Amino acid sequence: MANFDPPSTLKPAQVAVAMIEYGVAKHRTRADVVFFKAVAAGVMLSFGGLLSEIVSGGSAGINASNPGLVKFLGGAVFPVGLIMIVLQGQELLTSNMMIFPMACIKGAVPWWALPYNWLIVTFGNLCGSLFFASVLTKYTGIISTPPYDTYAVTFAMHKASEPEWHQIFLRGIGCNWLVCVAVWQAAGARETLSKIVALWVPIMIFVTCGYDHVVANMFSVPLGILFGADLTVAGYIRKSLIAAYLGNIVGALLVALPALYFFAPEYTPGGALRNAEEGEGINDGPTSARRSEDDQSSTEKRPTEVYEVASKRSQ
Q1: Nearest to 256, CA basis, from 190, 179, 192
Q2: How many CB atoms lie within 10 A of CB 293?
Q3: Do the Cβ atoms of 215 and 45 come closer than 8 Å?
Q4: What is d(CA 255, CA 147) in angstroms, rounded to the nearest whole number?
Q5: CB burial class (10 A; 0-12, 13-18, 19+) of residue 133?
Q6: What are the strands, taking DSSP E only, across 120-186?
Q7: In this predicted model, what pLDDT tens digit does every residue of 44-103 receive, in sequence order?
Q8: How far apart are CA 46 and CA 152, in angstroms?
Q9: Which residues pair with 184 in a beta bridge?
Q10: Dihedral sign, Cα of residue 76, residue 78, residue 80, residue 85
Q11: pTM score, two decimals?
């Protein structure tokens, strides 16, 4: 007997089209909704960041003899943040760095939508991260004793003070290359467990290797400052935030641009740009429009068909 179940994984071309359509959906979402979803994403990612710091900071004995193992353990738990973000449909800056360029290049959304979305999501992620670092971490006292508080300071200095600017920039490229691969793989998976595994592997790699994620650093570096790290806010912004931000953009483009070239060279939005400018909902796109036209044509044909059936019965 033939199996007509859909495949468990979408083809790359289907994922590329899905990414473009995600961009259209995000563009059509109200700014206040985008902002608060970004706040939630900042909090969710910070949960993963806190868990990673607790595991890494509390493993001093293991770190003395097996530092690589401690890095792996911290990397193994951090992905819970991105998993929650993706499964909840929240707004994370680093994935939008891939999605919006794809939608803009293909004309599905206007170019002004890119900086507009990135600006809103940046401040939303920042607000969520700072709220979590201060209210739910510092003032709750859950890591206010050694070795956790000491590790928070050391980790912040390791992220924002010790490396050179170009090193943070290059680490940002490697980080978001992997993050966007994770999001791409999760978009191609049809069921929850596959999405979790698809997200976990690349995120574990980037955290274990020590690459820089601009939103993750919005939690870890301010947390270190709150615990007394020898680092100013201006120094963090100038050296870490800007460098990681720019590096993350480059890393996202290293996924987005080849994806368009390989898998969506002939894609045309078919009126999506006009619909996006008019602020129509995601279900009002080209597919729904064709569906509406089909429904309308079937409705127009239905009276004739009913009349013909009635006539045959009367005969």
Answers
A1: 179
A2: 10
A3: yes
A4: 38
A5: buried
A6: none
A7: 999 999 999 999 999 988 888 899 999 999 999 999 999 999 999 999 999 999 999 999
A8: 13
A9: none
A10: negative
A11: 0.83
